[in-house]
Amino acid sequence: MKNLDPLQLYTDMLRIRFVEETISQEYSKQEMRCPVHLSIGQEAIPVGVSSRLTISDQIVSAHRSHAHYLAKGCDLKKMISELFGKVDGCCRGKGGSMHLFDLEAGQIAAVPIVGSSIPIGIGVALGLKRQKKPGIVVIYLGEGATEEGVFSESLDFAKLQNLPVLFVCENNLYSVYTPLGSRQDSKRSIIDIAKAHGIPAISGDGNDVIEVQKLTSNAIIEINTHSTPFLLELSTYRWLEHCGPNFDDHLKYRQDGELSNWMERCPIKKLKLHLEKNHLINNRIENKIIEKIKLEISEAFEYARKSSFPDPTELFLHVYAPREIE
Amino acid sequence: MSRELSYAEAILEATDQALHEDSKVMLLGLGVPDPKGIFGTTLGLQEKYGEDRVFDTPTAENGVTGVAIGAALTGMRPIITHQRVEFSLLGIEQLINQAAKWFYMTGGKASVPLVVRSIIGRGWGQGPQHSQSLESWFAHVPGLKVIMPSNPYDAKGLLTAAVRDNNPVVMLEHRWLHNTFGPVPEGNYEIEIGKAKIAQKGDDITIVSYSYMMVEALRCASILAKCGINAEVIDLRSIRPLDESTILKSVSKTGRLLTIDNGWSKYGIGSEIVSLVAEKRLKFLKSPPIRVGPKDVPIPSTRALANLVYPSTYEILKSVEKSLGKELLGMNWDNLPKVEDTPDKTFQGPF
Known about the structure:
heterodimer; B: alpha/beta; 5-stranded mixed β-sheet
């Protein structure tokens, strides 16, 4: 949620990193029996973006949604319980890792069909605008989603209706194992595609949380003052395998040294250097932060473990919505 | 004397009243405010309710379906239109993966109240990609509701119920029904989704049909009556949920079943009904059930071939004869209506 304190940005990124690392470490216990798309290495974008959002702003996400969800202030216990398939999960165990949402905190949707979340986000913005409700909609998408036809359809619709939408394209260079070069011509520019639809767009370093924050601030000003959608393309990199808890560099689909270069550009490390230079952090402060995060995470896992599986009667529940919803 | 409206006018009136009744209702789709107004079903609504609520869209069915779902998640009640059901297939990912699953996969926390109106073509050479009746695609999916009214009264009542429903509802309208007339009350009213109607009572055979094929079913029933055969004709009205009890009750009484599908019989609605009866009322059956439907081929353009695709009055009556196991007495087989490529003589094409 809205904050300008770099130490808070650091805390938020570290929290996401530790949650993802804990999932990775605990995954082999086979309690979390659902696909997980971890966000390690990509923490700066959601944290930088969400630091400029308010509670009435909505986000929609895709398959790699843990970081988006956590950065927006959504409930960690409900997330871990969902991964465990428990009834206290955000979807009562019916959605899994790929359908995280929290209506109170403003994550209205996450869907793993690449590109499909984009028009849904546009529709959310349309609904808010028609009902004169405050807020913008952030649509997180990967560069792979820009290859889907519905990306262009959505850009067109958003501009045509001048909707308050911020497209945040996280370009992490891979769609599963397929590199960008095998999917997009070297001259293809996502920024130019947005601009060709009349939508202002700018690119930036997605591993620099301060830069992400500034770009987001400027984009939101543009959205609100000119009643226009806006697109940010932010470069970043996923450290682990596309889906699952492990490193997968041995598969050799990435170039030699590519992963280690990006690990050098770790967004958390980068901000820490900045904090140290400005004397905003020391060991004592950092240890306190880490201690608090670890406690929160262990409580969330304990909560998930203690939560029940849904009762068998839940199988037939919620296929159709009744006329009156609570 | 009760007021008569065309099927298209009944849809227009239902939409008008829905927009009037609830400010969250919106209507969007390619051509909604154009001079033809989706075969007359949306005429004048933009003038009346404004461009914010009734509006044209890009030619982007996938995107538009997603947009409607997103708007529904904020509390809007969108109605989207497709001038042919084939165009809706561009948005089927959104409908099947997203809309149909939403209430379930959010553990009952968010639903998608959405109406998708699609039109089934037939005749005048529309051919393989403008004449398909794809109800079984949609009906296969838990989470969707599918309605296929056969007359103006049902069209208004079912559409009204669909807009008020909190689930995604697919309404399939047969193009040949738009210009048919029938009594329609002026006020708004609902027909419960999932309830079939006994269109004609009888004891000798159960005929189950829906949408345009109800016109054929009722025509055959009146011919049968002249031969002393009293058919019970069930108009499904809703394909999903299916009104199982009305079907089972009727078959228990008649012991004979004929289904007349609007789409292909294989893997079709008739197949579902025959399965239902086989599972639950097999002992009541006096003869094997029969499915009639369009031939198992893509629909060709030329009327020389397309007219062979659709079930004829002759074919339906012969199927009844087979089911009854006896000849229809007094039947003049030479004088039956032939399959045409237009709904009536006034139809001059091209749609």
